[in-house]
Design a protein that fits this description.
Number of strands: 16
Oligomer: single chain
Number of helices: 12
Structural class: alpha/beta
CATH superfamily of the largest domain: Zn peptidases
Shape: elongated
Largest sheet: 8 strands, mixed
Radius of gyration: 24 Å
Order of helices and strands: HHHEEEHEHHEEEEEHHEEEHEEHEHEH
Strand content: 25-35%
Distance between the termini: 9 Å
CATH architecture of the largest domain: 3-Layer(aba) Sandwich
Helix content: 25-40%
Strand order of the largest sheet: 1-2-4-3-5-16-6-15
Length: 397
């Protein structure tokens, strides 16, 4: 447990920097950039860190920023990574706030602007208090979380962990359903793996008035969709939450024209890697069997995405206790499995990791992630950066 004075100092600095944290978040919100194009965002992060005399460098063609603060206290030389994702989504914002996106069709609709501003202020706090910890804190401003293969994977392929000798990772994500002032967490498997499913269904086109001359891929697609709706309830192990959902169908026929092919796109998500691999084969087997019954054929393409996000039980329990010291037991919610995914999962399979939810609920408003009216309660910045600094400082004792 850290000395109470360190906790108070972190709270004071967080409050002192509150207005600037909000300013940074609103600047980022006004200037969102899509995955792989975060050049101006990275420039802003880099220049901000430089203005505080924090050592930093750019990676991944200038779209990622990694900063480093070395503790001045004698002790173990542990290296901790703190990560924020920085990319936005291809969504046209419908909010009427004065910090609305300036980039048409691009919006921070998943809170990455909050993650970035929060981590920047965390770095600022720890830079002021580096005499309170030993070891090294690495701040990772990561691009392309929203787009496969993900910025985390690219940073790992660039040997991020080895280069900085990172031994553990912490990240967080806003949650509009959790009241502001609270955090949520879950030990073990927390967020789902995610795969993109592409299914081409082949029949034989023809004139709609001559059914004996065609094999309708639309009818076959309907049968496959009905069967796939029951795929997880029928075949997934009962103790492993799983979903298979299709969200796109393209037929390109006409009222009197039956097409040769129908294209489906969907997502498969689960929490077990063995079942995940088995499911790929089972899907193809079922779809092929249905197609052959109708005289058609299928081609299934699975774009394997992020793995299951795993919260190390020991690190998670330590962080829960420290968060309880910093906040209170009433401000910590224990969460269930979450079917959404995050490429922070890649880190969690290589080093002990902890990923938590940060409540940003706005009273009397229903807000959803990835929605055009997404926004957050900025009062979260009264404590969020200090909390993360407190977790980091405890680990780096």
């Amino acid at each position: 447990m850290l000395l109470q004075q360190t906790k108070k100092d972190m709270e004071q600095l967080c409050e002192q920097y509150f207005s600037h944290t909000v300013t940074m978040r609103r600047h980022l919100h006004q200037h969102p950039e899509l995955s792989g194009n975060e050049l101006q965002t990275a420039d802003y992060i880099y220049s901000t860190l430089q203005s505080w005399k924090i050592e930093a460098e750019k990676l991944l063609d200038g779209t990622a920023v990694v900063a480093c603060i070395r503790g001045c206290k004698d002790g173990k030389q542990f290296v901790l990574g703190l990560r924020a994702d920085i990319d936005a989504l291809p969504i046209e914002e419908t909010n009427s706030v004065d910090y609305c996106s300036h980039n048409k069709g691009v919006m921070h609709a998943c809170g990455h602007d909050v993650h970035t501003a929060n981590l920047l202020t965390t770095a600022r706090i720890l830079n002021e208090l580096k005499d309170r910890f030993s070891g090294v804190c690495i701040f990772i401003f990561q691009p392309s979380e929203e787009c496969y293969p993900g910025g985390a994977k690219r940073l790992l392929e660039a040997h991020l962990l080895e280069k900085y000798s990172i031994k553990a990772m912490i990240g967080c994500h806003v949650s509009p359903e959790i009241p502001t002032g609270k955090i949520g967490l879950k030990s073990g498997n927390y967020m789902a793996s995610t795969d993109e499913i592409y299914l081409d269904i082949f029949g034989k086109g023809g004139h709609a008035a001559l059914p004996a001359t065609f094999i309708n891929p639309l009818t076959l697609a309907a049968k496959i969709l009905v069967e796939m709706e029951q795929f997880c309830p029928k075949y997934a192990p009962k103790d492993i939450p799983s979903i298979l959902t299709f969200g796109k169908i393209v037929g390109n026929g006409q009222t009197n024209v039956v097409p040769d092919k129908v294209h489906l796109e969907g997502t498969f998500r689960t929490f077990d890697e063995n079942w995940r691999s088995q499911a790929y084969q089972k899907m193809e087997q079922i779809c092929k069997h249905l197609a052959q019954q109708c005289g058609g054929d299928i081609q299934l393409t699975i774009r394997k995405g992020y793995p299951v996000l795993y919260n190390d039980p020991l690190l998670t329990e330590q962080c829960r206790q420290w968060a309880q010291e910093f906040l209170s037991a009433e401000q910590i919610e224990l969460l269930d499995y979450r079917m959404t995914a995050d490429d922070f999962a890649y880190y969690s399979h290589l080093v002990p990791s902890f990923f938590y939810r940060l409540g940003t609920q706005i009273p009397n408003r229903t807000i959803n992630l990835h929605a055009s009216d997404f926004d957050v309660n900025e009062n979260v910045f009264h404590f969020s950066s200090a909390l993360l600094a407190y977790l980091a400082c405890n680990i780096l004792q």
